[in-house]
Design goal:
Shape: globular
Pfam families: zf-C2H2_4
Protein name: C2H2-type domain-containing protein
InterPro entries: Znf_C2H2_sf, Znf_C2H2_type
Number of domains: 1
Organism: Bittarella massiliensis (ex Durand et al. 2017)
Distance between the termini: 22 Å
Structural class: alpha+beta
Strand order of the largest sheet: 1-2
Order of helices and strands: EEEEH
Number of helices: 1
Radius of gyration: 9 Å
Length: 43
Amino acid sequence: MGKIVGLIFPEKEEGFSCPICGKEYKSAKGLENHMEKEHQDGK
């Protein structure tokens, strides 16, 4: 399991998925950057 921005998300075989919008990323860092940029307010 990957831990991103204080939340735990299940790691998928093909990468990491945003729990808010479903966008897929190949790395945990990619998802972390997305969360910081796109979902700062949790939306």
